[in-house]
Amino acid sequence: MPDANNDIVLDIKAIHKSFDDLEVLKGISMQVNRGEVVAVIGPSGGGKSTLLRCATTLEKVDLGKIVIGGDVLCDTVDGRCVYCDKKLEKEIRSKFGLVFQNFNLFPHFSVRRNITEALIHVHKKSKDEADKICKELLTKMELVEKADAYPCNLSGGQQQRVSIARALATNPEIIFFDEPTSALDPELTKGVLKVIKDLAREKMTMVIVTHEMSFARDVADRIVFMDGGVIVEEGPAYELVTNPKQERTKAFLAGY
């Protein structure tokens, strides 16, 4: 059954996730509104990537509730987490894009095919329509001349921009970024961050796990600081970075 509030694109309520005896998420709750950019920061092992993996169906939560684009992905019933049926889960997956830190492009596909494959075979677009979308996105990424190149012939920054184009191709309601610049050197990082800044100006709804503090401060509407599987502090981006309230947040940011 859909949840009612159309302004909330992502609604996570009290989710728990353990791997064997290690509880990685300890009752996390957060909401992301349409057009909002939320940066998730914190030390390694704090649960940031696991949170993203649970929100994007790559991991299943043990308890809690996740609603994406108004559709309930999972909810807790009688003390256990129950997921929606496969048909609805597929529909929910079509509502979000995911950009990984290591690009995850198909190495044997050209740039064009990396972007058009899902459009043609999953979203049933015609080849002409898929090619048109691909060209528009590659123009936006300043990569139109690379349409027939293969990932091995691209720099890391170019590969990441192709990944972003692929995530945008299906016109998702929200895009998740998992450390989108961590595999890049500082020079290549600039181009990727510029693309994400442009998307923020266009009011694309985004959740970005990042270690780029100045980027999070300047681009995000809100920052969520996680440590030890809980949200320690959250608030308006500039305010949280320049004037954190919690001692743990202050200690973390002092390292930047």
Structural class comes to alpha/beta
Main sheet makeup = 6 strands, mixed
- Note the gap between the termini: 44 Å
- DSSP helix fraction: 25-40%
Mean pLDDT: 94
Morphology call: globular
Estimate what percentage of residues fall within beta strands: 25-35%
Radius of gyration: 18 Å
The total count of helices amounts to 9
Q: Could you give the count of β-strands?
A: 11
Give the ordered list of helices and strands.
EEEHEEEHEHHHEHEHEEHH
Strand order of the largest sheet: 7-8-9-3-10-11
Low-confidence stretches: none
List keywords for this structure.
five-stranded antiparallel β-sheet, 9 helices, 256 residues, alpha/beta
Question: How would you describe this protein?
Answer:
With 256 residues, this protein is an alpha/beta fold. It has helices at 48-55, 86-93, 111-121, 127-140, 156-169, 186-201, 213-219, 237-242, 247-253; strands at residues 8-19, 22-33, 37-41, 63-68, 71-77, 80-83, 96-99, 174-178, 206-209, 222-227, 230-236. The termini are far apart. Helix 5 packs parallel to helix 6 (186-201).
